[in-house]
């Protein structure tokens, strides 16, 4: 497995070796020794595992949680294909406001680690895109926040036409509005 740090401090992309044969292929999207070498410690204790299934054109995010407690995420695509986005929303971070995209696919086993305070979004490029999440905290509605994917200040790329968003994501505030309401995590 290979890894690289993203443009967002503390966020990493992981690419496992894929072993194809006549039956299909096999990959391990998470390997503790590689994660520990990259991040400096083993993966957080997993409090929840989740998955989403999306059709082509769905955009989910930019989602993040209140800190504290904050939620770290380890995300991979089990089927389909998506453009995954990590956005540094941590006030005081040296990479505040920066973002990076990573294309994830069910055939590749790539994964992304997002520390607490880093926003997460993705755009599904195929019908039946399945995203899997390992989370450091259980979902608590009162801790969940969102920013507008279309915030011009962030300037996130939109790799799909006619994006389909939830009502919550359509109504999400901009980065400036969240900062004015003191809703951004601290670095």
TrEMBL record:
Pfam families: dTDP_sugar_isom (PF00908). Gene3D superfamilies: Jelly Rolls (2.60.120.10). One of its GO terms (cellular component) is cytosol. The active site is at residues 63, 133. GO terms for molecular function: dTDP-4-dehydrorhamnose 3,5-epimerase activity. GO terms for biological process: dTDP-rhamnose biosynthetic process; polysaccharide biosynthetic process. The record marks 139 as: Participates in a stacking interaction with the thymidine ring of dTDP-4-oxo-6-deoxyglucose. PANTHER family: DTDP-6-DEOXY-D-GLUCOSE-3,5 EPIMERASE (PTHR21047), THYMIDINE DIPHOSPHO-4-KETO-RHAMNOSE 3,5-EPIMERASE (PTHR21047:SF2). This is dTDP-4-dehydrorhamnose 3,5-epimerase. The gene is rfbC_2.
